[in-house]
Fold:
Amino acid sequence: MNSKNTKFKFNSLMVTAVVIIAVIFVNLIVTALASKVNLKLDLTRSQKFEITEQTQTVMKQLDKGINVKVVGKKDEINLEVAEYLDRYSAMNSNFKVSYIDVEKNQSVLYTYIAKGENLRMGDVVLEYADRYKIVSASSLYTQTVSNVLGENKYNFDLEMKLTNAVVTLTGASEESAIYLLEGHSEASLTYLNTLLNEQGYKSQTINILNSEIPADAMTLISCVPAADYTAEECEKIDAFLQSGGNFIVISTAGVPELPRLESYLAEWGITKTSDIVVEHDANKMYNGIPFAIMADASEHEITASVISQKTPVLFSESVGYDVQKSNAQNAVPTVLVTSSEKSVGKANLDAATAAYEEGDDMGPVGMMVLSEKENSKVMVIGSASAVEISAQYPGNAQLISSSVSYITDNGGSLKIAPKVVTEGKITNLTKTGINVLYYSLVFAFPAIILAIGIVIWLKRRYL
Structure:
């Protein structure tokens, strides 16, 4: 009997040892595999961690090393950012991520300060050879609209910025050259400059009165000019467009009359009809302000994402435009964004608060117009604030981003829709509640399951 019990004990111990060794072995294999392949399941409501096919294609083709430096330790960085970087690393070992403890590595900050950059906690720096791109942590989230009580929604835009940075840094696509025109008391639009940089465009300013339009120029942008263009400048712009270039004009209510520029735009079928668009539909006013209009988008490739996602677009203090199908350039004009049928395009800014008067334009009034001919495109955006507010308003961000991409036809600028991050009631727990939930799930429940397993094993080990 003793010999039999000893044999059972030995067999039991051997089986236990084999199981433990097998578990350890499988764990080692899974751990090694996880560093090469993403094995995590995205169970979030909006699949916010799913990588698009566009990014997967770019990462498969990456055959050059990119050093990615994140300002801050990994446990200090936003969860979404750290998870995305892990997934990019898993797709290609050439994407090498390191986290910088700024308290111990001040030299990294000083290196970029010398280059005129001011790195902040959570910023992501991608380095390739002697080039670099910075993805700012502050630019990754924009709050959007939610009708659910106790719920916050944010657009998370890291994938588009990371992938475009990889594409432009490695030379997989040449940066499209965009020139911002100056010499007419133009406005400086901060968000537009940020957008151009983040989407992989090379931008700089130029005064075409004193110089020729550069050969690498793909698009010219005029940001709220307060002084008219000369006949010579209009001729240069026309020659540029006839050779396949593109032209964007951004305006706003209250700018002086620009007869030469407006006359040239009319050749493309775009005519200014009102100094300011006033909304009279209370449901289309933003916070009850008649000059702040929740605009309607027409069906077009540019507006497709805005329409499909039903994201509101805000146009404030906009100039009104109409289109002429018959025009000198034989171009095809299209109204992309309008006010409501109850709106009025006021012919005189001084009478903006008055009711409809003779000479005014009855709604819907065009506030954003595109005109196309062969390989050239001209776009007019009647509201400068529609561009600037994009930093806080996702619908505007999608619209302006798609507009610039469509106008330039930049194949290297990937249009990847932002992911929606939803913060619901579980994230509204108190800090104590979150800690209790964390320790229960991570420590208490596994310990209970382990204890139950040990008790069962002790009782059944000799059976």
